[in-house]
Design brief:
alpha+beta, Glycosyltransferase, 2 domains, six-stranded mixed beta sheet, 17 helices, 29 strands, 24% strand
């Protein structure tokens, strides 16, 4: 795999060359993905660029995860000639377009190499992932570093700006400029926006967009805000900005210009982009705020620290990226490592780590995850289940941070049902309780809570979660025992099926949930009950065809179904289902593969990468090879532009063709792609 500096020591494993009409070529490494993460740190700081837009990077705009444009531009002057490098959709007279020669991604960086006149520039979009360092991980900022490579003795200036599109409003916006020592900080905020409100694209309407930088490489820094044409023209003409900060205007930008002087050396400048909300989550009426605010309560202080931390964060990213790559390769080759690297930022970019806003007490740390693009729920239990393999091997503490607010709520007077809750709020960031008419998955979520609690305990060796919520976990286990073998009509993880009775996959979840509870509490009778369920489902053919070659959607009713709920059986070594059950599925699934992959069941034309990944971990041989190969082919096929959608068409269907993404985008559920890697052990990464 070809990596950019400072990771150039890593070996090249895959390079894709795309010939452009100009006969120039772009090297995509390891592949050209549907969309590159640019600044992906929270559900509200989530900027991307479609892979197919990279060839025209100079005029292609960043996009919020929902697909709406974000104004964010970079222009460089080389010996007085201005070259648009990124995001300038309408170039001003006299400017030229830089030529992209290389695009690469790792788990934390997306990097583009652009030729501009006699000099080569690298744009490194770096979103740190540091899940064991809650301070670093909770800072709501991302880096953009623009590096001019060593070359001739040119005069070089670098300009960048952004606008109000980052706060989701087209009017009633204001901005301000402040400094801290040499750091310049712009803040853009909407006026009169309700706290905890979003626009139709899922952008936060309260809080502030932040853009900051400081002089570097011995150069000087100038600033301006005002109408975009005049601010950009000032840089194009002079290489500097006026230092005047006009009030907000609808076509305005806030901009920085770095004058690096005449230099033949490599020089880099770094910007920090972010979105800050002091009151970030409403948890049962108590405002939560970012964990970082216990140390840096002031936004200017926080972003100044973030820039100070660049060297350490970058050093950590080198190790982290190498671990993702090596884990993927050792688990199942370079195709698998490509998938993991593209998935990681999307997972952690859907989560926020918080503390109470009033006390700033880090002893009450929580985490909240958004069900991005599907329905916007907060701390959906099955979304956490779909994500948990990455936490199991990388940051198991997140399981407690995510489960604690769920169990705290469901143990209160606000929730009185005997089974586990589906989520703790219909609309992120409002964790105000499960609505009366909200979606419910009694068996699915009851089993999930038990499984996730045991995953945390097994990975950390800590029993605090199971001890604190022992009565609730016991209640859920009792519910599974009474209702799990013959489920009433209810939803499963595949809620597209609707409410069906006797769903095989739900019964499998009950069997695994009971056995897991037995392991969690050292009560062998629950393990025995789980094995009894599994024997009836598989050996007695309650949930299979008569010959025992496949699992069915419902008892005795075709079609077949992709059974993924027995993944924890293998992960935890429970030995609930016999080996022949796994051998049979490994033999069967390749026979029902469609043009672009294995569908979720025999009655539909689409598949879901979450559950394909769980199944890939439960099968071996050609079946595993097929599932990994299909997932890699889907993400590299060039048909899609949405941030890694976990649902796609596996066969042609009306206006869609096999390989097209289907509905979802940017969801954090891609932690499921680590299911195969997680079989190597819990909490094994040292970085």
């Amino acid at each position: 795999m070809r990596w950019f500096n400072p990771q150039s020591a890593l070996a090249a494993v895959y390079v894709m060359i795309l010939s452009l009409p100009t006969s120039e070529a772009i090297t995509y490494s390891p592949i050209k993905p549907p969309s590159y993460p640019l600044a992906v740190r929270s559900p509200y700081l989530s900027a991307w660029i479609p892979g197919n837009s990279v060839a025209s990077l100079s005029s292609s705009r960043a996009q919020f995860w929902a697909g709406n444009d974000l104004i964010w531009s970079v222009t460089a002057r080389v010996d007085g000639v201005a070259y648009n490098l990124f995001g300038v959709k309408v170039p001003l007279s006299g400017t030229k377009s830089g030529t992209v020669t290389e695009a690469t991604y790792t788990s934390t960086h997306s990097t583009f190499t652009v030729q501009a006149g006699s000099r080569t520039f690298t744009l490194d979009f770096f979103s740190p992932i540091s899940p064991k360092n809650y301070l670093r991980q909770s800072l709501p900022f991302s880096y953009l570093t623009v590096t001019v490579a060593a070359g001739d003795s040119s005069s070089v200036q670098i300009y960048s700006d952004l606008d109000h599109s980052w706060v989701g409003q087209a009017s009633d916006v204001s901005w301000s400029y402040s400094t801290k020592t040499t750091t310049g900080v712009f803040q853009i905020q909407g006026a009169d926006a309700s706290t905890y409100s979003e626009n139709s694209n899922g952008q936060a309407l309260w809080g502030s967009a932040v853009y900051a930088t400081r002089p570097a490489g011995g150069g000087s820094l100038s600033t301006a805000s005002g109408p975009s044409a005049s601010v950009r023209q000032s840089f194009i003409s002079n290489g500097t900005l006026s230092g005047t900060h006009a009030e907000w205007t609808a076509n305005g930008v806030v901009g920085f210009a770095h004058d690096l002087g005449t230099t033949a050396k490599e020089v880099a400048v770094t910007f920090a982009v972010g979105h800050v909300r002091e009151e970030s989550i409403n948890f049962l009426g108590e405002a939560q705020t970012g964990y970082y605010r216990a140390t840096y309560a002031d936004t200017v202080d926080a972003v100044s620290h973030f820039l100070d931390d660049y060297s350490d964060a970058s050093e950590e990213s080198v190790t982290f990226d190498a671990l993702v790559q090596s884990t993927g390769i050792s688990s199942y080759g370079s195709n698998y490592s490509d998938i993991l690297a593209l998935s990681t930022r999307q997972v952690y970019g859907g989560i926020e780590i918080t503390i109470p806003n009033e006390s700033l007490d880090t002893g009450t740390t929580r985490a909240f995850i958004k069900e991005i693009s599907s329905d916007g729920n907060i701390n959906t239990v099955d979304v956490i289940f779909a994500t948990f393999p990455i936490f199991y091997i990388l940051s198991p503490g997140y399981l407690k941070l995510l489960l604690d607010p769920i169990l705290q709520y469901s143990g209160s007077d606000g929730y009185t049902k005997e089974y586990a809750v589906h989520e703790i709020g219909a609309s992120y960031p409002n964790a105000t309780g499960h609505p009366e008419d909200g979606e419910e998955m009694p068996i699915e979520e009851s089993g999930n809570i038990i499984i996730l609690t045991y995953a945390y305990q097994l990975a950390t060796g800590k029993t605090d979660l199971a001890t604190t919520y022992a009565s609730q976990l016991s209640q859920y286990a009792q519910y599974l025992y009474k209702n799990g073998l013959y489920p009433t009509a209810q939803l499963s993880l595949n809620d597209a099926l609707g409410e069906l009775a006797n769903q095989t996959n739900l019964a499998v979840k009950a069997a695994i949930g009971l056995a897991t509870y037995g392991a969690l509490t050292n009560q062998a009778n629950y393990t025995t009950a789980g094995k009894s369920f599994a024997e009836k489902i598989w050996s007695d053919h309650l949930g299979t065809d008569a010959a025992g070659t496949r699992f069915l959607i419902q008892y005795g009713i075709t079609p077949w179904f992709l059974v993924y709920n027995h993944y924890p059986d293998l992960l935890f070594g429970l030995d609930i289902f016999p080996e022949e059950a796994y051998n049979a599925t490994a033999a069967f699934y390749p026979t029902v593969r469609q043009k672009a992959g294995v569908p979720l069941d025999g009655a539909i034309g689409w598949g879901q990468t979450n559950w394909q990944s769980f199944v890939a971990a439960t099968v071996t041989g050609s079946a595993r090879e097929l599932l990994i190969k299909d997932l890699h082919a889907y993400v590299a096929n060039g048909l899609n532009s949405a941030p890694f959608s976990d649902r796609y068409w596996v066969q042609d269907s009306g206006q869609y063709v096999a390989g097209d993404s289907y509905s979802f985008r940017a969801r954090p559920t891609l932690g499921s792609h680590f299911a195969l890697a997680a079989l190597g052990g819990a909490n094994t990464w040292d970085y």
